[in-house]
Amino acid sequence: MANGETQQQATVVNRQHNSHARDEREQDMQHIREALRGLRYGTVNIIIQDGVVVQIDRTEKRRVRQRDAK
Questions:
Q1: Nearest alpha carbon to residue 47 among 30, 36, 32
Q2: At 55, is the pLDDT very low, low, confident or very high (cuts 50, 70, 90)?
Q3: What does the domain layout of the chain look like in residue ranges?
Q4: Phi and psi at residue 36, to the nearest 5°
Q5: Polar residues: which segments have biased composition (predicted)?
Q6: Which of 14, 30, 31, 58 stands 20 to 30 A from 66 (CA)?
C-alpha cells in the first residue's frame, strides 16, 4: 500500500509541476505578445537559457519625415 501511495503522491507532484510550467510558458507568451503589440518597424529578441525565457528586448524604429532638400 505504501508503494501505491508514493506513486499517487509523485503523480500529484508531477501534475502540479506540469501545471506550473504551463502557466510560466503562457506568461512568457503573453510578454512576447506585449512586445510585438503595436510594433511597426523594429525587432523583438528573446533570450532563452536552459529552455527558459530570461529576457525579452524590444527595439523600435520610428521613421521621421525628412525635410525636402533645396
A1: 32
A2: very high
A3: 2-60
A4: -80, -25
A5: 1-16
A6: 58
